Amino acid sequence: MPFYADPNVLVGLDRPDDAGVYRLSDELAVIQTVDFFTPIVDDPYLFGSIAAANALSDIYAMGARPLFALNIIGFPVNTLPRETLVEILRGGADKAREAGVPIIGGHSIDDPEPKYGLVVTGIVHPEGVITKDAAEPGNRLFLTKPVGTGIISTAIKREAAPPEAVAEAVRWMLTLNRDASLAMVEVGVRAATDVTGYGLLGHLYEMVRERALGAEVYFEAVPLMPAVRELAGAGVVPGGTRRNLAFLSGREKSGRLRVDWEDSFAEAEKLILADAQTSGGMLIAVTPERAGALKAALARRGVPAWEVGRFLAPAEAAGAAVRVRRRP
Fold this sequence. Notes:
By secondary structure, the protein is an alpha+beta fold. The protein has two domains: 9-127, CATH 3.30.1330.10; 131-325, PurM-like C-terminal domain (Phosphoribosyl-aminoimidazole Synthetase, Chain A, domain 2, Alpha-Beta Complex). The protein has helices at 44-61, 82-98, 149-157, 163-174, 178-187, 199-208, 228-233, 239-248, 267-273, 288-300, 314-317; strands at residues 9-11, 20-23, 29-37, 65-75, 103-110, 115-124, 140-143, 191-194, 214-218, 257-261, 282-286, 306-312, 320-325. Helix 1 (44-61) runs parallel beside helix 5 (178-187), helix 3 crosses helix 4 and helix 6 runs parallel beside helix 8. The protein is globular. The termini are far apart.
């Protein structure tokens, strides 16, 4: 599709990222994203809070500061009680307030299935934008939240989720990525993304797919939420996760494998790394020289960090965009 070209568009559809960025001046750019989805937990207040945290994450992933937000909601007005809608909106408002972001408007439609999220607008210095395509060979790869929310959300729908796994997943999904973003900016990180619908491997693939660059992930280093291994082994996996893995199992037009599983992995293990996340953590590329400073900056803000891989030069990648190994 042809798109209107504007030299002030710093990040747009020609180089898709977590949010769009438009330069207003040499010192200021505006950044904007929109994200909404159907309920993944039963409690409407928690659903609204998680949806808001998820939408804000796109702004944080690019090193920007969110300023304000708009509600976007679909709701079956003749099926569910008005109180449910109020609780969804209250949850979103409270999470936005925690982030210091006022909600100043929005739009709603009558929809057979509830949907909620935010349009978020923020600001960033034009030269301070963190993008997903700026990693370099030798960069170390850090993750700031465990994975498994898609699998646990599916278990909730099937009434098969252990209560402790639900509580842990909700806690992580409610956690803002604000402090992780502040740490990235402090250290001078240039490449990052947040882990959401395409799963850990899908979003890592996005970081390397347009460049002569590879990456490797160490399965045993990736933090998992409680019961995720057992649930995945029992086939409690969302359809989006299976579609992610099917895509990642293919090849690019060049013939390069999207993902090469170097060691012996069970199907359930592959699905875990492809699991479609909601309000996941930051996936951060950092130079070896700054890795210690990043861990320290995250720790000062109470943000955990797991080193889960590294970026590779083309010769090391050996015909695959992403390699998965058991351990380093």
